[in-house]
Specification:
The complex is a heterodimer. By secondary structure, chain A is an all-beta fold. Chain A is 0% helix and 54% strand. In chain B, 0% of the residues lie in helices and 51% in strands. The chains are: A mainly beta, B mainly beta.
Chain lengths: 114, 111
């Protein structure tokens, strides 16, 4: 069965520090992979997605993610975190088949210290 | 272009009451989805509709029913609400950019 694991429930970083959020997936075929961000009380906003091609994907707000098939991972990175990046981040895998369901990880809550 | 809209934003119900959560999208998308979000569990798919006139169960369908009224609208009904259905509910649609677009959510409290 398809699944997504985000091993870190909470992460705290200092403003200006680098960030890496981990995501591991389980899916038999080539996955569609997504990272979404959710600010408190808000809906989900797409940060970036991977379908094929270059395994390093650039997204909005200075985020990037790297697809590593050998490790079944799709980790999200940002070189310098801003206080406004404090939010919850969700990794998801898309199950293709005409209806494109997403399976989400449990999320990682990011806190940013000044 | 409003994207995906949901009503109501907040709702308090008593156990056993019924209600319908409304969702509409103006992006001409075929596929629509209902998720619930609970702390520490991410988003879980309740029901989805691949196209107008079709609906299918997701991961957690028990206690819910859905209606795909037309291409734009996809409603979620709780026939007899239970405290376990206290959650935040998100509607989404799948677009040509191979991306799911989410509504702002409905916060439901069942007492």
């Amino acid at each position: 069965a398809q699944s997504v694991t985000q091993p870190d429930i909470h992460i705290t970083v200092s403003e200006g520090a680098s960030l890496e959020l981990r995501c591991n997936y389980s899916y038999g075929a080539t996955p569609y992979l997504f990272w979404y961000v959710q600010s408190p009380g808000q809906g989900l906003q797409l940060l970036l997605k991977y379908f094929s091609g270059d395994t390093l994907v650039q997204g909005i707000k200075g985020f990037e993610a790297e697809f590593k098939r050998s490790q079944s991972s799709f980790n999200l990175r940002k070189p310098s975190v801003h206080w406004s990046d404090a939010a919850e981040y969700f990794c998801a895998v898309g199950v293709s088949g005409g209806y494109n369901k997403l399976i989400f990880g449990a999320g990682t809550r990011l806190a940013v210290h000044p | 272009n409003a994207g995906v809209t949901q009503t109501p934003k907040f709702q308090v119900l008593k156990t056993g009451q019924s209600m319908t959560l409304q969702c509409a999208q103006d992006m001409n998308h075929n596929s629509m989805y209902w998720y619930r979000q609970d702390p520490g569990m991410g988003l879980r798919l309740i029901y989805y509709s691949a196209s107008e006139g079709t609906t299918d169960k997701g991961e957690v369908p028990n206690g819910y029913n859905v209606s795909r009224l037309n291409k734009r609208e996809f409603s979620l009904r709780l026939e007899s609400a239970a405290p376990s259905q206290t959650s935040v509910y998100f509607c989404a649609s799948w677009g040509s950019q191979e991306t799911q677009y989410f509504g702002p959510g409905t916060r439901l409290l069942v007492l």
